[in-house]
Amino acid sequence: LNVADTFDLPKVIAQVMSIRSITSKTDSRKFFYPQIDHLHNPFLMEDMDLAVDRILSAILAKETILIFGDYDVDGTTSTAFLILFFRSLDVEVYSYIPDREKEGYGLSLQGIDYAKYIGAGILITCDCGIMDFDAIIYAQGKSIDVIITDHHKQSEKLPEAYAVVNPNRLDCSYPFKGLCGAGVAFKLALAICKKGDYDQEKAWFHSDVVTLGIAADQVPMQDENRAIVHHGIQQMEKKCNPG
């Protein structure tokens, strides 16, 4: 009833808003008019600083970077986004999507072999890696630094990767746990822009691709997801990425 009075709305609509915890005008503004500045500082995510420092050093040294993505929509859009983002920075970057039938889920040995073949010193996973203990040890044996970006829950321990960027790490106090793989990759890109002094528009320009991953993975359309999707739909309307 208070919501109905506050917003001068029919009780049915007020009830729906109450269920979604939109009970004040401040909450309603964030919900109906999400803004870029509503996003959290990406460096609040555990290991983000390690990941960004390693990537920036790779860019400076002109190292080859491999993006390894899961084969679902979240994984492929995460990979596509990072490829587009790094290319906008004039960084040499390659991608690898595993064969679902032959390689299965997660970081595969074939993918690591491909990274070695192209001379990559750094491998960034998208939407996977949090459970790939043996594969990461295999990569270390080939002198490849693995940066995990994932959103799936971890087991009792973490793999011994160079960095594990995942808001759902047990020891990560990041304020929003509802990011999908594409969302985590997006936050990584924003962190690279922030510390590397790149224009953040280079990341936001491809928010349409991230939006597809968010929608397909059915994560909560709240908080950061809502702000990214709001902007991403506007990018879709510009038709910058025909695919």
Task: Provide tags for this entry.
about 240 residues, alpha/beta, 5 strands, about 50% helix
What is the fold's blueprint, element by element?
Elements: H1 2-7, H2 11-19, H3 25-32, H4 48-60, E1 64-69, H5 73-88, E2 93-96, H6 109-117, E3 120-126, H7 133-141, E4 145-149, E5 163-165, H8 181-196, H9 201-204, H10 207-216, H11 223-238
Parallel strand pairs: 1-2, 1-3, 3-4, 4-5
Q: What's the total count of β strands? A: 5
User: Strand count, sense and closure of the main sheet?
Assistant: 5 strands, parallel
How far apart, in Å, are the first and last alpha carbons? 46 Å
**Secondary-structure-derived class:** alpha/beta
Helix-strand sequence = HHHHEHEHEHEEHHHH
- Unreliable spans: none
Amount of beta strand: 5-15%
Write down the overall geometry. Answer: elongated
Number of helices: 11
Chain-averaged pLDDT:
93
Helix content bin: 40-55%
Main sheet: strand order:
2-1-3-4-5
**Radius of gyration, in angstroms, nearest whole number:** 19 Å
